[in-house]
Design a protein that fits this description.
Chain lengths: 412, 412
């Protein structure tokens, strides 16, 4: 029988009632003839409680013990989900990571999946079991210790199972009903997308549209797993939610699919840096060593051997970035006249896989912003994305204006 | 290095503060030179919460899923205890049942321990680890599924580890400071015993002195594991608590070690039963099949081929026992004139291993009760115990009078 993977996040299994509701959804798919693999998160709040215990016990905790503690919430949900399905006369059983066994690297708290043997679960499906409920977020290391996959690890677990079992689709049930052209809280014309390409989703996820973990989208793209995002709180049809898929499966590619924004962005400028080969490495190596997530990097026009270097990073890393750069200056590794941090900015991006074959998107974007009197501070582009930093106070205005200009309220 | 097993119950690890306090106790033993195996229960309340989830989800639950869910509380405590010890610079790590692996039978929710391989933990001790923290109450079945050992299973886990590792002693930390000559809430002269023989402890435990699970005492007796019961809430010396040990290790055996009582006892009498061979089996087989825990059994003097048969059972099983017996009567398996249940009784027992070599204990007990005007309804005796059923209203009086008469307030 075809295999379907269904993943339920913490809010979708937060109470016994919600677990029942989720189980009913599973039952619908079983009735359609699928063998279902259900991936569950911990009941919402549980993992945070456990993380709190660990951090209070040991600020510099042993990550192996951290993993052993925080993975237990998923085990509870897995058992309860299996029991709920059994109550509905759906043959089901739970699997913890080590029982699969879901093999990972030894990088505790941020382990990567190495292998998912399918024999055990496949044999059980052969014996009449219809649902394998698997505790998400966890696996075991080669040393036989419990590992966790890091934040959003249950999405990754789901996609990895879908790949391993060659599932027809991987449905991610969450508290939103799909991926939108932009944030509906900012722009009331925001429209739910029926389909979006993996590449677009990656750009949107990393830009703060926190529907799916970036890692799980990457994995889905690599293994061509059809990923559907949908709400566990609404009645569902087969066409509900948003399908994240290969671009070949999207009939009409949008030139622009969405407008993303990120508040959590600061702009830092190193003024008058010696413009010599290797200077970029000299600047960004100490930042990388300090764990700064540098996002945009722009080197301004060079004059008389000096240049300005601008980059963006998360707002809460500004102090650390300043410290790292000043240290590098004191050590003589780099030389700059001044360091200016601007935490009063935001990032706006337009994303669309159709940009590859359409020109003029950037020009249009800049004109729209200019017409609104919004000054652009930094620009970067990729094949399918154009991002700008602007003053934070213009964020809502920019999103609404761009959404209108690219007519995103209309389906392609 | 010699191995010590230390077990901390739910109230002893109920909060992070209490876990710290327990860890300090472990640190003291490590400093003395022991390699320590710590067995932990779930933080108090956790297991009940999980059991509640399961029962609400599925009244007739799959015991395999029940075990997978309810065992998770111990995993959390084990990790937190290991982290706490590490914070105190004591090399420690946690083990879940499947990691040991603690092998059990497949009898989910009441599994029995089959094997505890010692290689992994012993090797870690050899590498400098000083404390192995093991999640109590759980193991794995031959099918690789998680099992639990039933109520009090963590005591049993502790004793089994002590046996497997040939530990010098097994210390059970709990919320009482030892085993008393009688219930201190009933008799203020109750005295803490320094030592008590396994056999005596078994009689006391099964009589309702709920300090140690009967099963763990049986296991300790079989493998001659020295068991110490002590409080986790008091400063401890080497002589704290009560040592439960082989009678050879007790210098002066008490004729009577303690007076036990049990409120939860009902007396049932079958009046005028045909007195023929096989009648006892005919009565007690249906009771056993109905799951009735029959305790005392007394057959009265037979007259003209008829006899009265009296037995005791827990108060809450009276209705079920009546039903089973009436059914057996209707089926023609047994014949009796009347069935009388008396739920207004209690059981009082005096226990002492010295009774084996001393006579007159029973006579003295009956005289003490008679002097207080207490009527004895049923008597049973074993080698080291005399039990009587009396009216419940005399319970406190009987306990105090017997405690005085046998001078239990004085050390042997």
């Amino acid at each position: 029988m075809p295999v379907l993977v269904m993943k339920f996040g913490g809010t979708s299994v937060a109470t016994l009632d919600r677990i029942r509701r989720a189980a009913k959804r599973v039952g619908v798919e079983v009735a359609k003839g699928y063998d279902v693999i259900v991936i569950v998160s911990a009941m919402s709040g549980e993992t945070n409680k456990l993380v709190g215990y660990v951090e209070e016990t040991s600020p510099l905790f042993d990550a192996r013990e951290y993993d052993a503690v925080v993975s237990s919430g998923e085990n509870v949900t897995a058992g309860l989900m299996a029991l709920t399905l059994q109550e509905m006369d759906v043959p089901a059983r739970s699997w913890q990571g080590w029982q699969v066994p879901l093999m990972t690297t030894s990088a505790h708290s941020s382990a990567r999946i190495v292998d998912i043997p399918t024999e055990n679960i496949t044999r059980k499906f052969g014996e009449g079991m219809r649902v394998a409920v698997v505790a998400g977020f966890q696996g075991i290391s080669p040393e036989g210790r419990i590992t966790t996959l890091g934040r959003g690890g249950s999405d990754t677990t789901a996609v990895a199972f879908a790949a391993a079992f060659d599932a027809e689709r991987c449905d991610i049930y969450t508290d939103v009903d799909g991926v939108y052209t932009t944030d509906p809280r900012i722009c009331d014309k925001a429209r739910k997308l029926d389909r979006i390409a993996f590449e677009e989703m990656l750009e949107l996820a990393s830009l703060g549209a926190k529907v799916l973990q970036t890692r799980s989208v990457e994995l889905a793209m690599r293994y061509k797993v059809k990923l559907r995002v949908l709400s566990s709180f609404e009645e569902q049809s087969d066409e509900a939610g948003t399908l994240v898929c290969d671009e070949e499966e999207i009939m009409e590619l949008n030139v622009v699919s969405g407008v993303a924004h990120s508040r959590d962005e600061a702009k830092m400028t190193l003024i008058s840096v010696a413009d010599r080969p290797g200077i970029a490495a000299a600047i960004f190596t100490p930042l990388s060593e300090a764990g700064i997530n540098v996002d945009m990097i722009v080197q301004n026009i060079s004059e008389e051997g000096r240049t300005d270097m601008t980059f963006s990073c998360p707002t809460n890393q500004v102090a650390r970035a300043e410290e790292a750069l000043k240290k590098a200056k004191e050590a003589g590794e780099i030389n700059f006249h001044d360091l200016v941090a601007d935490t009063n900015v935001c990032k706006i991006s337009v994303v669309g896989i159709g940009m590859r074959s359409h020109t003029g998107v950037a020009a249009k974007m800049f004109k729209v912003l200019s017409d609104e009197g919004i000054n652009i501070k930094v620009i970067t582009t990729s094949e399918i994305k154009i991002s700008v930093l602007i003053d934070r106070k213009y964020m809502e205005l920019a999103v609404q204006a761009l959404h209108d200009a690219f007519e995103l309220e209309k389906a392609a």
